[in-house]
Amino acid sequence: MRISLGPVLYFWPRDKVFDFYRQAADWPVERIYLGETVCSKRRELQLDDWLEIGAELTEAGKEVLLSSLTLIEARSEAGVLKRLCDSGVRIEANDYSAVAMAEERGLPFVGGHSLNLYNRPAIDVLKRAGMFAWVPPLEMNREQLAQVIEIDPGIETEVFAFGRMPLAWSARCFAARAHNRPKDDCGFVCMDYPDGLSLKTQEEEDFLVINGIQTQSHQCLNLIQHLPELNRMGVNWIRLSPQSRYMNEIVKCWQQAIDGDITMKLETQWLPGAPVDGYWRGMPGMTASL
Amino acid sequence: MDLVCPAGSLPALKAAVNAGADVVYLGLKDATNARHFAGLNFTPKRIREAVAYAHARGSKVYMAINTYADPAGVARWRNAVDQAADLGADTLILADTGVLDYAARKHPDLPRHLSVQASATTRQALDFYHRHFGIRRAVLPRVLAVQQVRALAADTPVELEVFAFGSLCIMAEGRCQLSSHVTGQSPNMAGVCSPAAHVRWQEEGDILKSRLNEKLIDRFEKQERAGYPTLCKGRFLTNGQRHHALEAPTSLNTTELLPELKAMGIAAVKIEGRQRSPAYVQAVTRVWRELLDSLDRNPEGFKPAPEGQKTLSRLSEGSQTTLGAYARTWQ
A74–B148: do the CB atoms touch at under 8 Å? Predict the structure, then answer.
């Protein structure tokens, strides 16, 4: 099993993004996804910037992919996607628009978790279209995943195993709404929340996190204690979703765990929210076994 | 434009047909469709009756098999497709690429529509489904502004169907796992959102609390009307402020957009509500039949009857209606 670093889901300042990937060049991750997957208005970095970062990471021995926007609404966004597909770098397709463009170009792609690949026949369709790795939907449990990959699917399986879980996308920007601003005049308020804006219940209980048009779990998915099982099942990649702090510690801890040290545990203070593994166990995603 | 109406039961289907629905859509009594609620939906025998009733009166029946197939249940989804063909359904409404692939190969002559659950919002995505599975029509998710719908309508390989009235799903359909995060069951796999089995009402003095799997979704003062705890429509705290952080209980009503939708060549308008009563379906269908007929008679001078709009408001969630994502201001 190898470690991949998912795309940064949050809106970080340009310098922070460059700095983050400068560090990532030294981490024991072998595959890195770059690009904006949540909101097309976030333009701190242009495609050329991502390609520059990608070139440096490739130089450092990493496999680099460009991740596509998940919810595409405007023609201009489809235009950006086209440039992404024409850049010569392999992509993670997070929408069927990207699948279609990749297929037309004969460009191999990773099928992101928002493509809703829940069963083998669905995977086979996309494999024929050029998919070389897939990320199961977050809500899929271990039995379901085992059934899909029991007989070698002929492509790599990459499991989202760490980080706040992206649960929903909307036309509405909830971060702007929380600040009584219209989406078209959002003032890029999500930059104030490097790990998302907390949404609590009226009992002050941490519940969800708002990340622009995306809604995430407040809790932090952590499957590290299930590593032996993931390995046995034939999962090829462990995806870690970037957060603003402690990523260095988190990545190294996972690598040691993969290398066989089953005593490795993530420190509570490293996590942005309570650790959960409910989906993996066929339970509500917000629940934990520990 | 076709009027496509919901039926969660045979009486609802009859009500819709009698009130002038061009098409009624329905699903089997299991997780193969996205409205899998207790006491709702159709056995194969009832579907046969439904099809006979509708066809005798000039209406069509679409069968929704629009959840994603459980890896262990692929045979069940395929069987649902075979049943739809056998029972005389006019069209399949599908989302799962595996199920679409099966339907296209096994029943090439049975028309296929792309479900809203597939969340296709671009020409490129529609191209993909058209190229691989020969879909004839796609139902658009409720995330596009009207200008975006127009742009897509001008550049699409397939017919488009849009949501016109009913409960407003605010997240991109097929891309929402909030329900399974809280309850373990989601629209994609189980065909349910915020399922009733996880709802608990709790009275504390004058306060009524609604919980979903113990998470507090909302609390209501005595004078407030308590809404069902659909988790995206509760009141929560952001930066210490209590509000409908995602969306308030409200229904979509696109009456005022009808001339525009017609002009851009939208093939059908869809009414949401398979979980609703026959009386609701009949009332809403009747209003929308009148709206479409009056639009056909006089597209330039289209003016909705105030009585009909009053009926729609009365039947809306929280008695409120909205244009939803069609209006940029909502976004």
Answer: yes
